[in-house]
Write a structure and sequence with these properties.
single chain, 3 helices, globular
Length: 86
């Protein structure tokens, strides 16, 4: 899976914004934090959910399974709006 080419990403110091182009079926803006931005970075190439989780666990400590929860929730929400190609 990877980020649909009809969605554009803009990063600021503390926020990541994903905006659909005119060709996307979704209209709106998705705002996210640094963790969201890391997930989006992984989705710039073809990757599995498990690879994203493993990569993030190398970057951050995860004593309570929060990384897996965040990745699964984010992927699910992005799929709902058509922002992920499988």
């Amino acid at each position: 899976m990877k980020l649909n080419k009809n969605f554009l990403v803009h990063k600021t110091k503390k926020e990541v914004i994903v905006v659909p182009s005119g060709k996307a079926d979704f209209s709106g803006v998705i705002n996210g934090n640094e963790t969201f931005g890391v997930i989006i970075d992984f989705l710039k190439k073809d990757v599995t959910e498990e690879e994203i989780i493993a990569g993030m666990k190398k970057m951050y400590s995860d004593d309570n399974g929060q990384i897996e929860k965040d990745v699964k929730r984010t992927i699910s929400e992005l799929k709902e709006i058509g922002a992920i190609d499988e």
